Amino acid sequence: MDPAPPFAWTSGEIHADVVLGAGLLAAAYAVAWTRGPRGGPREPALFLAALLVLLGALNGPLHDLSDYYLFSAHMVQHLLLTLVVPPLLLAGTPGWMADALLRPLRRRRTLGTLAHAATGPVTALGFYAVSLIGWHLPAPYEVALEHHAWHVVEHLVLIATALLAWWPVLSPSALFPRLHYGTQILYLFAFGIPMTIVAAMITGAEQTLYPFYASAPRLFGLTALADQRLGGLIMWVPAGLIPVLVFTVVFFRWVATETEEESGTVERPLL
User: Fold this and answer.
1) Per the confidence metrics, is the pTM higher than 0.85?
2) Distance between CA 253 and CA 271 in Å, rounded?
3) 112 to each of 100, 117, 249, how far by Cα in Å?
4) Rounded distance, CA 28 to CA 146, Å?
5) Distance (Å, rounded) from C-alpha 268 to C-alpha 252?
């Protein structure tokens, strides 16, 4: 890694590859939106919000804190990449757009079978758990910090597996649909377990797990071990709160749908 730059809240490193990737996604979305049955501004706004969060997480002061100084800042970054960006991307993708992208997979039996398996609750949560736990083990984590290319791979894998993990609850596709509301609620009980395992491992450690941060310049009066424990707590609390928040939304949508079905006015949920 390069030497740590002087930290300032008003500046920070900008990664051209991240900006380019977000720009290409935005352009592709805009082109597809103009060619489909466009709706209101809600879905484009959510998709744009996902890209803005992605840019904020991987550039600027949060990037510098994460890559050079604080483990706790890096955990904030990983929370944004797994618990904020993926659900916003899914909620911002219209069903017709998702089906247009996925329909070629369904036409090929092998790919369709693999896609169906990958978006199933057990497989999706399994991929997410292996990715989240694996990348936070000390050896892979250190490699990602020391080598930028591996750091990019780490972030891409975390985002991709988090998309799979959110799919059973937020799928916009009729071809690979979300679970029934009741099953979504059961699934959400398990969703936070992988991150809780990682957070418990980190918070309970009696010594620093990551030599990179042990030798990093200190900021805000945090020792390396205090910074590590703060990072574990930052993961632990949202890992419990965000699934509970989504659980609450799903529950009330389930109740509303049951009421609408009884009155014969059921509509497709927007979440």
Assistant:
1) yes
2) 9
3) 14, 9, 30
4) 33
5) 14
3-state secondary structure 136-164: CCHHHHHHHHHCHHHHHHHHHHHHHHHHH
pLDDT tens-place string over residues 209-221: 999 999 999 999 8
Domain holding 75, by residue range, is: 16-263
Handedness of CA 126, 187, 153, 141 (dihedral sign): negative
Amino acid at position 228, single letter: Q
Tokens at residue 62, please?
């949060």
| 239-231-66 Cα angle (round to 5) | 115
DSSP at 2: P
Contact (Cβ atoms closer than 8 angstroms) between residue 25 and residue 49: no
- The total domain count for the chain is 1
- 161 part of a folded domain: yes
Name 171's Cβ contacts closer than 8 Å, sequence gap at least 6.
Answer: 90, 98, 119, 177, 178
Q: Please name the amino acid found at residue 233.
A: L
Q: Is 89 a member of any domain?
A: yes
Closest CA to 203 of 71, 63, 77, 81: 71
Determine the 3-state secondary structure of 59 from DSSP. Answer: coil
**Residue 204: CB atoms within 10 Å:** 9
Length of the chain: 271
**Per residue in 99-108, is it b (16+ CB within 10 Å) or e — as a string?**
eeebeebbee
- For residue 6, is it within any domain? no
- Residue 250, pLDDT > 70, answer yes
Instruction: Give 75's contacts (C-beta < 8 A, 6+ positions apart).
Output: 231, 232, 234, 235
Residue 9 domain flag: no
Does residue 31 carry a pLDDT above 80?
yes
Q: What pLDDT does 64 receive?
A: 93
